[in-house]
Design goal:
This protein is α/β, with parallel strands linked by helices. It is about 35% helix and about 15% strand. The protein has twelve helices and twelve strands. The chain has a seven-stranded parallel β-sheet with strand order 9-8-7-6-5-4-12, sandwiched between helices. A three-stranded mixed β-sheet has the order 1-3-2. It has a two-stranded antiparallel sheet with strand order 10-11.
């Protein structure tokens, strides 16, 4: 098993190479190993490239790392000036993005990445995630906007909803937004909560409606209810090739309720093809037309614009908190 304590004490029975990215680890292995057995002395012989972190644990020296990997997105991002989030109290809100590691869901969309993970929950990871968010709220005094849904459907994760209510007890938490397929009645969930501090993105998945007409009407009813209750609401729709042509129909229905529907470019494997690379030119033209009101979604989701190494609000006003507390 992988034990940090054993590694630090020099008790690991295996030689380990570590790095800040997959590319570093692969390069480190390729430079020394090739097709030959991995041996500690080979790394010790290359003092120009590597240093020994712990006994039997090696990594690139910083100067070698900068030379080999200066074009990696991570390297480009590291040279952007940083400020300490916890040292600032200027009243400017920060957005914390941190999806709960629970993956359970009442839908089984064939294009969902959770098929690779069995729609499973981890009690340990959940408790770590909960602790990380509570710690963040206690340490960060600036106004906080949370984007903290789950990796599945939050409304079937009762423990997740209890965390939401706990966070809303802190007055500087201005809003908590999450993604839901809106397949369950939200009235009992938001009872007693300040609606103005909630935001919901409804994900429309018609392929999961057992009864197409009833399922769509229920979804629209939930959207209308949330809007009337003062909750900020938007919706999105995944543009798999088979669902592409129906987007205008659903967009019109939601516009009638005063709700925007955004087109999510599909990313992943679909019938043996990788997307978005496999969209045809005609399909991309249609998608771009759908994204006229939100051009930045089109630019980044279609990979027409690459943000790496550019200054942006990520790491300035927007932060991601992993379930283990890493920011």
């Amino acid at each position: 098993s992988f034990s940090i304590k054993r590694i630090k004490n020099g008790l690991s029975q295996e030689l380990i190479f570590c790095g800040k990215s997959i590319e570093e680890v692969q390069c480190g292995l390729d430079l020394v190993v090739g097709r030959k057995p991995l041996k500690t002395k080979k790394y010790r012989q290359r003092e120009d490239l590597f240093f020994e972190v712990y006994k039997g644990v090696f990594s690139f020296k910083e100067e070698a790392r900068e030379s080999f990997f200066r074009e990696l997105p991570q390297m480009k991002n590291e040279v952007i000036p940083h400020v300490n989030l916890f040292e600032i109290n200027d009243g400017v809100p920060v957005c914390l993005v941190s999806p709960c590691p629970n993956r359970s869901c009442n839908y089984r969309c064939h294009y969902c990445f959770n098929h690779d993970h069995g729609f499973q929950n981890s009690k340990t990871e959940f408790l770590d995630w909960k602790s990380a968010l509570i710690t963040a709220v206690k340490k960060i005094k600036r106004p906080i906007l949370f984007n903290i849904g789950t990796m599945g459907e939050p409304l079937v994760n009762g423990e997740w909803w209890e965390v939401i209510k706990s966070l809303l007890k802190y007055s500087h938490v201005q809003k908590i937004a999450f993604v839901s397929n809106l397949s369950l009645d939200l009235k009992p969930y938001i009872e007693g909560l300040d609606r103005s501090r909630l935001g919901v993105t409804g994900t429309l998945h018609p392929s999961q409606f057992e009864d197409a007409e009833y399922g769509l009407n229920f979804f629209l009813t939930q959207v209308e209810y949330l809007i009337n209750e003062g909750v900020d609401v938007a919706c999105n729709y995944v543009l798999t090739p088979e669902q592409l042509s129906d987007f205008p129909k659903y967009q019109k229905l939601l516009a009638g309720l005063g709700c925007n529907l955004t087109a999510n470019i599909f990313r992943g494997n679909w019938r043996g093809k990788q997307y978005p690379q496999s969209y045809s030119g005609e399909e991309l033209s249609i998608i771009k037309k759908y994204s006229t009101d939100v051009p930045f979604l089109w630019e980044y989701q279609s990979h027409k614009k690459v943000p790496y190494g550019e200054r942006c609000t990520s790491g300035r006003y927007v932060f991601n908190i992993d379930w283990d507390g890493n920011v």
